[in-house]
Structures are given as C-alpha cells and as structure tokens.
Amino acid sequence: MDEPPRFARDPALDALDIPVAFLVVRAVERTRPAATLAAACADFVADLLARTDYGTLAAEPALAGYRDLHQRIGRTGRQYLPSPESLFKQLFKRGCWRPIDQLVDAYSLVSLRTRVSIGAHDLAHLRLPVRLAATVGGETLLPIGELAPVRLSAGEYAYFDADGQVLGRMECRQGNPTRVTADTRDVLFILQGHRGLRGGALHAAATVLADTLTDLVGPHQASGLSVID
Question: How high is the pLDDT of residue 4?
C-alpha cells in the first residue's frame, strides 16, 4: 500500500491558486561560527538601506502579490502583513539586524533575499501529515511573541497538522508551540508563494535555503522537498 502524502493542499483552496513547498531538514547541527552569519545579515541590511526604501520594496510584485492574495479573501490591514514584508518593515524601522537564533536568522535571510515567505516548525512538536486548508472559523493560534491566542475567522487559510493544531495563519503569523528554538534539530520549512510567485521559485528558494543552512548554520540531512503548484 502506498504511503499517504505527508503534505497536502485542500482542493477547496484551488481557486486561490496558492503554491506551497514543504522542506524537511533533520539533524541540524549549529557548528558554523555565529559571527559568519551575523556578518552576512549585517551586509544584507547595509546594502538594503543604501539602495532602496520600504515603500519601493513593498511595491515589488513578489511582495505585493501576497497582499493581492489577501484582498481576494477580504483580509487586509497590519495584522495580515505577509511575513517577508514584515521582516523588511522591521529592518527599515530598526536600521539593523536583531539576531534571534542561528537557524531562525538563516532562514529569515533567505526569505528576505528571495522574497519568498518561509515559516519554520519544530517537527518534535507537530504530527504529520500537514495540510494547507481553509478555516471554518473558531480555530485558535498562539502566535510567536504573544501572550494570548487569537481566534481565526472563516474564510482564511491556515496550516494544520494531523491533530488539527494550527501551525500558521496564512503566511503571516506562526504558532508558538512549534517555533524553532536552540534545541530544535528537525525542522519543517513551509515556503509559500502566490499567483505571481510559482512553484519553480519556491523550489529554487528551498535549494538556496538548504545551501544556506549548510554554509551558515551547519551540516544537516535534507530528507524531502514537496512542491504543490
């Protein structure tokens, strides 16, 4: 008997045309010098601030496409800011990179460079399979950095594990229970695009992500990439 797929997108979302990629990385070792990653992040910020501004960047099709997707389901406003744009907004506000964790900083850097939304979840705190599905309303998510859970409304889209745990609200907020920490060794990366940012771009970004982890974090085992275009 064939093994059931570990990742899926609900057919009810086909009209929204949301491409998504799932990259599983196991046995991550943080053996590269933290200073090397810090320098790469600092160089990225310095170049960014020297050549553009937030308004110009937010208007790029790769970023604006996420907001177009949100408009189609009636979800606009600051609480629905797509994760890459949110990261850029923080950089322009602070003028520097605020380090969190080697693994987190590495995938955030790839997200900024590629303009692809990337979320990361500790596989020890979720159960496969994972699916992208429409919300029915009433689901709850405790976002990273928040003290109280938020209640999702019907008509959004979210990532769910096999137990119905919400891993992420759209490509905007990730759940605290599955967040990456210093103890995380096995990771599920979720890369999401939109109508203008297709599966090919997600596949390329996943390749860059795997290479960046090797170069700036340490050795790991990439155990599978699934792309749903």
Answer: 62
Tell me if 133 sits within 8 A of 145, measured CB to CB.
no
Cα(118)–Cα(126) distance, integer angstroms: 17
The β-bridge relationship of strands 187-192 and 117-122 is: antiparallel
pLDDT computed for residue 3 by the predictor: 54
Q: Where are the domains of the chain?
A: 7-228
Yes or no: domain 7-228 corresponds to CATH 3.50.40.10: yes
| pLDDT, tens digit, 9 for 90 and up, residues 10-41 | 999 999 999 999 999 999 999 999 999 999 99
Q: How many CB atoms lie within 10 A of CB 220?
A: 19
The torsion angles phi and psi of 55, rounded to 5 degrees, stand at -60, -45
d(CA 21, CA 82): 16
Residue whose entry in the numeric block shows the structure tokens 């990273």: 144
49, 82, 93, 174, 185 from 97: Cα distances, Å: 12, 19, 10, 20, 24
